[in-house]
Each structure stands twice: as structure tokens, then as C-alpha cells.
Amino acid sequence: MPHEAFVQLSCPECSKSWESTPSELPAHTDNFSCPGCHATRRTALFARTDRDLETLKNLQ
Asked: Has residue 1 got a pLDDT over 80?
């Protein structure tokens, strides 16, 4: 089984940081809620870096 990549995430509201696999997240254009403060934004806005966003887009 191939090893899945992780993306680094950070909440724009509470600054909580965590990582997840792209398959565990909604599509980058769909809404996602922070597990810390429950702020809801498009999943893409939680990507910590441009590289994390590209990984998210490419692996979904």
C-alpha cells in the first residue's frame, strides 16, 4: 500500500496547527471546520503553505 502524503494545516482564526492526509479532508473548494475553534472556511484556506495547498489539490 503506498504511503500517503500529509499536509500541514493551520486555522486562520485560532492559529491551531495540525496535519492530515488529503483523503481525510473535504475537497479544497469545500467547507471545512477547525477541530479547535470550529471556524468554517474553504479547506484551501487551512493549508499552511502553498506547497501544502498544491499537495491537497493534487491528491484529492
From this structure: no
